[in-house]
Give the backbone structure.
Amino acid sequence: MSREVILGDIREIMADVFDMDVDDVVVTPDTTADDIEEWDSLSHIRLIVAVERRFKVKFTNAEIERLRRVGDLVALVEAKQPA
Amino acid sequence: MTAPHAASLDLTLAGRPSARALAGIALAAWPEHEKFLLRSFGQRSPAVLDASETVSAAILKLIAGEEARFGEDYRWTCDRLREEEIFFHREGRYRLSTFAEAHAEVYSNDVYMGRYMRGLLLTQALWFNHAATTEMFLARVLGAMEGPFDYLEVGPGHGLMTAFAAASPLCRSLEAWDVSATSLEETRAALKKLGAAKPVALVRTDILRAEPAQRRFDLVVISEVLEHLEAPGEALRFLRSALSERGRIFVNVPINSPSPDHLALFSSREDVVALVEGAGYRIDRIELYATQGRPVETALAQKISVSAAVVGRPE
Ligand SMILES: C[S@@+](CC[C@H](N)C(=O)[O-])C[C@H]1O[C@@H](n2cnc3c(N)ncnc32)[C@H](O)[C@@H]1O
């Protein structure tokens, strides 16, 4: 799965988790929690768990804590995909 | 990015020096927590901000001389809660379900318990849902008592609510029951530091094994306790028999609120209504407050923690 596809899916997940219209979710790899009002510590966990479900991967607690940039999330999903 | 937030926290808490000081204590240990606190306080009505100030002033008295340690333990507690939240959102249930498990993991670990209890104390003012529930307790529970009353609280913990009850001019007598000797010691010390207005009889009792009450109470409070029990309905049914005919019970129980020692999961307003009504009460009032002042319906749908506070009377 390419990074673009992963990013696209994550954007859809974000719209769902943040309760936003998908067209209003503007994400680039550099987007962070500071750029999206709805992305706070509460929605962060829901976002990560939804990403886990969608891509059938599992993050460690330390990874969940650290992940703040969409690009890092995409890269980690990619790294955890079965070869 | 810090400066504008700091300015806004000063603005949001202008005229509420104790709440501002308490926020500062948390931020000293955890600077990244500012966005959270700003939203938490920014969502509060003037009445809830006033209650927050009252609670914060009391908390500052309890932590005097140890502020830094309490700030650290608040951060540590939030970290533990985040771990539970991850589990909860993955699995849709609380991690532990029996008292034996909670005892082995949490209650029997003095160091863990100490940090956890110190952390939870600060949440009473720093978390929107806790402050809003306290405002309800002060204004629409204690403030609504119409005549002299005898007060019973189960699981007083930090002792703040017991102390507020003691300060009510209508309050005639107070008892506080708790299963844990350590908790009772915390309550005793807190009441002393707060200069509780009346003596409080502290009794060590497991609410699930209590002897039939020797007397009746006009206001029974059980706040953030039922979710720790294997049989919450039984505890409420027992308390029904300790309530005077015209008495009121105040039940505060969290919905979708994972915590290391939470066993009983309530997922909706209906769950809470069924719990209280099923134990033989009629509900006079129910107020729901979501974490961070989120709209309650959204929070329930997203399984974000909501405090449910109920005033009931014997059916
Ligand atoms: C989280 S604290 C609640 C403190 C305070 N009431 C509040 O609202 O924040 C839970 C308290 O309930 C007590 N508790 C737990 N199980 C109990 C039981 N079976 N019988 C009596 N008290 C119990 C604990 O020892 C602790 O003091």
Remarks:
- The mean pLDDT of chain B is 96.
